[in-house]
Write a structure and sequence with these properties.
The structure is a single chain. The N and C termini lie far apart (about 50 Å). Helix 7 links the parallel strand 3 and strand 4. Helix 7 runs parallel beside helix 8. The protein is about 60% helix and about 10% strand. The protein contains 16 helices and eight strands. About 45% of the residues are buried. The model has no long low-confidence stretch (mean pLDDT about 95). It has an eight-stranded parallel β-barrel with strand order 1-2-3-4-5-6-7-8, surrounded by nine helices. Pfam families: TAL_FSA. It is found in: Cytoplasm.
Length: about 375
């Protein structure tokens, strides 16, 4: 049955599910979502913290792994890789049907490695090799240390989901790193037609911080709720501009795949804003929107299917210029958001591991 997600697909946008847990796999819910048009899955440390620590889905598996002598770190690895592998297998028909354009599932390197390029590369290679499926993407944060890791991994043929992108400057660097990795690969005489990447540009968190600054400084309330969409639209404008460069044309002629912009953090945090504010305004070709469960359901019920991501660009530029004129530096905002994002994932990972260690100790104690 055709759904509104299928209609979005016709405009060139894929909808990915920003959630994974064993219950989704066991119940058939993920399979239902794929049938409804969802064509990818993303995960992160916060999602796994809620899945493993906040449910009983994994208790039997944890008990069995403890009895086999595994510690908390090894158990985390086993549980997450099994979920990602099963998700990849469910999505494999989408990957095959779209000739590798879609059907991916993402897993993140531990956030504790965000400032360590060699360790990020080594862990990404290990995860990708262990899963051994062509439709897995490894999430690497767009930190200063993550950017060179992206180039190395792409050159190695590892699919990369670049995460925690907030600023246009960082996004520009991410695009270049992807191209450099492809060029390195070609210089080695290796094919580039099966290497895939997305660039995850975070949206709602921009409004959350900017709106807070507007309120704290007593600025014009009319400035609220404008920054996130404007920032994302300018990112898409950058994507279009870079895609028109001869350097990309040369790579595309060799079979290289477009590194699609992916809109992340697209559920509205402010209840005063429409539930689909960061969906309806960012629809267009060569894009992905990764959505949490409640937003996917809202899309299935009421999304406005129309190309909007490159509409009203003059307004987007004007909105950001108005914020700068009011004293809000978007460079400062996006730098803060990157730091907060890395810290939030580190905290979730630490909480997850602490919870696992308690479960391991409880099982070991009988």
């Amino acid at each position: 049955m055709a759904t509104s997600i299928h209609a979005l697909n016709e405009l060139g946008q894929s909808i990915w599910y920003d959630n994974i847990r064993r219950g989704l796999l066991d119940s058939g819910e993920l399979a239902r979502l794929i049938e409804a048009g969802v064509s990818g899955v993303t995960s992160n440390p916060t999602i796994f913290e809620k899945a493993i620590g906040g449910s009983n889905d994994y208790d039997a598996a944890i008990t069995e792994l403890v009895r086999r002598g595994l510690d908390a770190q090894a158990i985390y690895d086993q549980l997450t890789l099994e979920d990602i592998g099963r998700g990849a297998d469910l999505l494999r028909p989408v990957y095959d049907r779209t000739n590798g354009e879609d059907g991916y599932i993402s897993i993140e390197v531990p956030p504790t490695l965000a400032a360590d390029t060699p360790a990020t590369v080594a862990e990404a290679r290990r995860i990708f090799g262990t899963l051994n499926r062509p439709n897995v993407m490894i999430k690497v944060p767009a930190t200063p240390e993550g950017i060179p890791a992206i180039r190395t991994l792409i050159a190695d043929g590892v699919n990369v989901n670049v995460t925690l992108i907030f600023s246009l400057k960082t996004y520009d660097d991410v695009i270049t790193a992807y191209w450099e990795g492809l060029e390195d690969r070609l210089q080695r005489g290796l094919p580039v037609d099966r290497v895939a990447s997305v660039a995850s540009f975070f949206v709602s968190r921009v409004d959350t911080l900017v709106d807070k600054l507007i309120d704290e400084r007593g600025l014009d309330p009319a400035l609220r709720g404008k920054a996130a969409v404007a920032n994302a639209k300018l990112a898409y404008e950058l994507f279009q501009r870079r895609s028109a460069e001869p350097r990309w044309a040369a790579l595309a002629a060799k079979g290289a795949r477009v590194q699609r912009p992916l809109w992340a953090s697209t559920s509205t945090k402010n209840p005063a804003y429409p539930p689909l504010l960061y969906v309806d305004t960012l629809i267009g070709p060569h894009t992905v929107n990764t959505l949490p469960p409640q937003t996917v359901e809202a899309v299935l019920q009421s999304v406005k299917v129309a190309r909007t991501v490159d509409a009203d660009l003059d307004r987007a530029h004007a909105d950001l210029e108005a914020l700068e004129a009011a004293g809000i530096s978007m460079d400062w905002v996006t730098d803060q958001l990157m730091q907060q994002g890395v810290k939030a994932f580190e905290d979730s990972f630490a909480s997850l591991m602490a919870g696992l260690e308690k479960k391991v100790a409880a099982v070991a104690a009988g």
